[in-house]
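Question thread 4412

I'm putting together a teaching handout and wanted feedback from people who do this every day. The idea is simple: show students a protein as raw sequence, then show them the structure tokens that encode its fold, then repeat with a second protein so they can compare. Below is the first pair exactly as I plan to print it.
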Amino acid sequence: MGRLTADYAQLLDNEVRAFLARSDTFYPPDAVKLTIADQRRVYDDMCAAFRQPRPASVQVRDETAGNVPCRIYEKGPCKVSVIYFHGGGFVVGGLDSHDDICAEICDRTGLRVVAVDYRLCPEHPHPAAFHDAREAARWAAATWPDNRFILVGDSAGGNLAAALAQHNRRDSKVPLCGQVLIYPGLGGDVTRGSYVAHAEAPGLTLSDLAFYQKLRAGDAGIADVTADPTFLPLADSDFSGLPPTVVVSAECDPLCDDGDIYCARITGAGGRAHWIREDGLVHAYLRARNMSRRAGDSFGRIVQAIAALSEDRWPYEG
């Protein structure tokens, strides 16, 4: 976790500070020395503490998409489904860590949500998570052949959603009507912009990102994967043909500028993309949506974006 500096004293309100303080109570002073198993345990405990009850109207079941565990959230018949990829740096998280988020998206939009439990690092380095994301999406398309799909993901899951949308242009196995990326890491230049300005941001630091990226690369090494668009979507040279895209970034996050750059490349290639920078928010603020007005308002905008894309509406300029 990053240290709260004088700059963040100006940028963050008391509700966001309270969220960060509560999150910090789960991490010991020497958290960086925790084993991967202990990091997962701490993260799961933290997520459980923030978790909200599922809405009673949402029906939930677990299924296996080929070889990939998934959780299905349904409220009623629908012609569009959401495929959700959770965050956690490709190292932590799973179906339970984002269970209430997926349930609330289902409840508030009426859309089916398919949450994907992709394999994690370091046991399963890249491209294992991407392969699982692709397999689960293809399974969903085959299971509900009359549906179109919106790819949604936060943090690492936003990376997977973007990578899958770009890859899907080549095989068109999944009929997409949009993607919504929430504070995604897409592979921006770590020597510029938000990567420098927020290198020590509370909630996620530049050193945290380097740690996760190294684990994800595995034995291949960073140099061998940074040109791979399925590892870093901004490494792609072609951003044409992508579905309508909404990216929501947190201001106080090293990853913030990735969303702006990604949307600019899509619009530059003739597509539709809209970037929202959420001022005064930090990475992983979805967990704060019930204790922070700013986070709650942002979650509302995320839900509205998903609903709009499901109806083929574009409520943004351009």
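The second pair follows. I'd like the answer to focus on this one:
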Amino acid sequence: METKRIVFVGVGGQGNLLATRLLGEACLAAGIPAVVSEIHGMAQRGGIVESALVMGDATSPIVSKGEADILVGFEPLETLRALNKCNQDTIVIVNVHPLPPFTVAVGQGVYPDVDKALETIRNAVSSLIALDGDELAAKAGNPLSLNMVMLGALIGSRAIPLDGDVLKDTISKTTKQAFLESNLKAFDFGIAAAHSPLDPSKSGIKS
């Protein structure tokens, strides 16, 4: 099958590592070869966290500069920083809700304008799917379900050959019962958002 290189990037605590693992498990359940990268970053300290999954006939999960077919960004600034993984044919799926780093919070830095960051990303790649994942997670009843929203958006983009029901089944088997309903709802919200993404030039999000 065609190889798909997917990079996930975000901030520690957003759940992108779990999203990567769930996608890998769903691929294997569907009979799709997949390899997942090791953890990169400081997941326990709110630092940058990057992981990758390669679907198809590949033995290494490493995605080098310019090789990503899909970039899933849980935070807009970190998505912009990971733009070197992309090329002009890459599809980028980004949560437009900013999570400013500690230096910004204490007044030692300035968070970039989100709309300008999104415009830079859009001009560099084939397609940009922008959504307010935090808002959708809260709407689903669980602010911590951002990772489910982003997985749903990935499926909704139709960029990978994986049926959404397979991923839902994987989520159902790994989610605590108390959070299952909200996680599945968040997943569905992500799919819908990918079908009707935000206009990147009018995100309405302020840093």
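Top answer:
Good format. For the second protein you could add a caption like this: The mean pLDDT is 90. The first helix runs from residue 16 to 29.
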